[in-house]
Amino acid sequence: MLPFRLYLILLLTSGYLAAQPNTRKLPMDTMIVTQGQVTIGGAAVPYEVTTGVQPVYNDSGKVTAGLHYTYYRRTDREDPNRPLLISFNGGPGSASVWMHLAYTGPKVLTIDDEGYPVQPYGISDNPYSVLDLTDIVYVNPVNTGFSRMAEGADREQFFGVNQDIQYLSDWLSNWVSRHDRWRSPKFLIGESYGTTRVSGLALELQEEAWMYLNGVILVSPTEIGIERAGIVEAANQLPYFAAAAWYHEQLPADLQTMDLEPLLAEVEAYTRDAFLPALASGMDLSEEKRRAVAETAARYSGLDAQEWLDNNLMPTTAYFWKNLLRGEEAGNYTVGRLDSRYKGIDARAGGDRPDYNSELTSWLHSFTPAINYYLREELGFRTDLQYNMFGSVYPWDRSGDQTGENLRQAMAQNPYLNVLIQSGYFDGATNYYDAKYSLWHIDPSGRMRDRLSFKGYESGHMMYLRRPDLETANEDLRAFIRNALPGENPARY
Asked: Which CATH number fits domain 4-227+364-483: 3.30.1320.10, 3.30.540.10, 3.40.50.150, 3.40.50.1820?
């Protein structure tokens, strides 16, 4: 027999799902509650799952959208001070599925140990989930997952850097009130564009909702409004080139036999001390020095010196993905953008860029059936709506992106607020050295350096897809959350 609370919630909220199974109209305020249990670190962790929709309101109180979310609450711990982790993915326009079913949640999709899809599709328990330490809510912004605008709503109020932050701040404040989580230490985690989102939310929540956070986790971060265009962006690619070339065994023997992190430390030092100044010299760089730079860059990248010279010492990432494995000996494969461990096959070996992103097709192969099965069949959220892995959110207003500065200001105002960056070394879209650069420039003064940290992994954009990194990244996240809980220490300088 169902517990009374669960029966009552199902009775009150499942009318839409039971009575209107064939509709594609989203209920703007509903939820379904189920129970589960997972073993983490050898101990059983029972939990309650709430998956539902909560409305977005405009300034006049009118419902303008409904956001779908999934909330995991550990049920054998009635601690009002238990942490809460609020999770967003990126895009913009990407659903919360990625970290939900592959990183922090109690379920992980069926893939092999390196992250490649296998059949039959499905999910299993995640023995590394952080649910033992913190409750978790996964949020889908408008037009992602099952989240949708209300009929007649204005698109422009949702789809932009600052618009996104503003409506999500109000929605989160309401969500925390509904679920009685105001006393909980709160952490935001965002992946890719989600890092722009959570960086901006850190300050918006403080200033508009008076909600102060303990931590922000940036997974494979974007530039978060920190300027690094031109030669800085070009120079910062070299350490990533070295990582990908090392993985595919395209480096000289003496470098190929090195462990990855010591190799990258060497390339980073060269990038900062020699490569960036050389690019800054432009046409004033002598031919002798230009040739020397090309030779060193070739040694670290798997491309040859002439390719560096032909591209004015600044080959694009698209060129790299297309050309790293060009040639019969290398198989004439392309390498992936978001994770360069993945290989693809183009219609022709020549050209400037790959025909498709080999890693993304692989991920969609496994994530799409898993999330649809899990939400509909296991959690009971029955609807004819399509689950948008990537939704229509364009044009996206990118003006006024000050999210990195917003994060710095939030940290300055809140001595409890800590920041962790997690990056995969083989990510060619938001590369790990760019992430380090952003870390250095969030607080150029260095006065808050003890609250800023970086962790790198031998995988790509979604570093948790590789099984050893799933374990390590969750342990790093668990340690970060524990260290950001101040106990009875006052928030003061």
From this structure: 3.40.50.1820
